[in-house]
Design a protein that fits this description.
Blueprint (H helix, E strand, L loop, with lengths): L1 H23 L9 H38 L24 H15 L12
Length: 122
């Protein structure tokens, strides 16, 4: 009888703890800062570039293997494949967000503080 009671107490404790941790997982994270967004965009661009480099290297190695294979064969039915394109060196994008932020701050500095219309002098 005691073991049955122990299992029910254990199951209630497990249910309460899982409910506690489940509510913590619904917490909303704050918005990332502009610097974090820029860093994430930079990492995404660099990853895309490295994927292009990997595809280029794979294409070159496949061409090399195909050439070695066809060297010993009678290559009458050779299929034309597109040439491998080199992605070139990695060039980071210019950060446009800080430049636009400074432009908006300079516009805000030249805008009059009051809502009254500005009348030009004659």
């Amino acid at each position: 009888m005691k073991s049955k009671n122990l299992w029910s107490v254990t199951s209630v404790c497990v249910a309460l703890l899982s409910g506690l941790f489940a509510t913590a997982s619904f917490a909303k994270l704050p918005e990332p800062t502009p610097e974090a967004k820029a860093k994430a965009a930079e990492a995404k661009a660099k990853t895309a570039w490295s994927d292009k480099v990997a595809a280029y290297q794979l294409c070159k190695s496949q061409d090399k293997v195909a050439a070695a294979y066809l060297k010993g064969k009678d290559a009458k039915a050779v299929v034309a494949t597109p040439a491998c394109t080199d992605p070139g060196p990695y060039v980071p994008e210019v950060a446009a967000a800080p430049a636009s932020a400074s432009a908006t701050s300079s516009v805000a500095a030249t805008t009059p503080a009051s809502n009254a219309p500005v009348v030009p002098k004659k």
